[in-house]
């Protein structure tokens, strides 16, 4: 595996690559969720490029930028084991040089749900992914459905700016108990992780309610809330059911393919998850 630690090395190494390119942007501290994106890319593309960059612009004041788990040596070993072709490990000045003009793209979606609770978060995500795409210039980008709103916003950006890259959306990878894998799970103790698996059980209850014929948004939402033990999860930031294609909240009856999105706080850790409600 080649490693590019700056843009000069990246350009050099990209010039020597033959064939098409799949790209997996990450913030590192890699887990099986990331690996599934990498393996999907390897199946479809001649070469797979992974980036690791903890992007400061997507963290708000008081968020966990400083303490975000960083595991570079272990990540490099994992990526070598998975025979990734090229790892791009930029510094902030490679991604955001002084003379860099930010891309002007936004969507009303950036201020909803996660965006309402984390102002500026999606603007940072848009900036970093746009910039990484222009540096790496891949044919395909692999993104996880775990971050469903991010996936939607980035797909809109790629579509509306007609960027020449195809989005590949990858399924959510979970622990055996259902907890969605996340680098931030490192903040949880073993017991916390067992307790946090109740989020997925709640999503499954909502899905079962929907599948049994309840199409009412409130009833399906209640199925999630009722299955959550308030002594375990004290704060639900949001539970929302949105139309899968437009991300507009379903009002009243759910009559198209939908997505239930949830964010809960577990101690000082925020966890997000979602489940598809398909008719
Ligand atoms: P991150 O390193 O958290 O920024 O994530 C990098 C990519 O991995 C994003 O496209 C995420 O949606 C994806 N990802 C993170 N966790 C999972 C998971 N449990 N299953 C599938 N994809 C994931």
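^ Assign residues to that structure.
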């Amino acid at each position: 595996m080649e490693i590019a630690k700056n843009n000069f090395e990246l350009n050099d190494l990209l010039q020597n690559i033959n064939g098409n390119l799949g790209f997996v942007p990450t913030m590192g501290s890699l887990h099986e969720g990331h690996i599934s994106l990498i393996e999907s890319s390897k199946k479809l593309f001649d070469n797979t490029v992974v980036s690791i960059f903890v992007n400061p612009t997507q963290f708000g004041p008081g968020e966990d930028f400083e303490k975000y788990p960083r595991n570079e040596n272990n990540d490099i070993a994992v990526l070598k084991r998975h025979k990734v072709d090229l790892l791009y490990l930029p510094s902030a000045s490679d991604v955001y040089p002084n003379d860099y003009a930010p891309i002007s793209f936004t969507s009303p979606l950036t201020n909803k749900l996660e965006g309402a609770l984390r102002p500026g978060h999606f603007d940072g995500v848009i900036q970093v992914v746009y910039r990484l795409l222009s540096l790496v210039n891949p044919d395909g980008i692999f993104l996880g459905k775990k971050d469903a709103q991010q996936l939607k916003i980035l797909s809109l950006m790629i579509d509306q700016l007609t960027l020449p890259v195809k989005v590949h959306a990858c399924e959510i990878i979970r622990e055996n108990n259902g907890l969605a894998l996340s680098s931030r799970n490192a903040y949880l103790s073993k017991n916390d992780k067992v307790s946090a698996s109740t989020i997925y059980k709640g999503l499954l209850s909502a899905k079962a309610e929907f599948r049994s014929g309840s199409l009412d948004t409130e009833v399906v939402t209640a199925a999630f809330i009722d299955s959550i033990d308030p002594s375990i999860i004290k704060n639900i930031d949001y539970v929302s059911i949105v139309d899968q294609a437009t991300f507009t909240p379903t009002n009243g009856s759910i009559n198209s393919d939908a997505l239930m999105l949830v964010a809960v706080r577990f101690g000082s850790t925020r966890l997000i998850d979602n489940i598809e409600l398909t008719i």
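The first strand starts at residue 2 and ends at 4.
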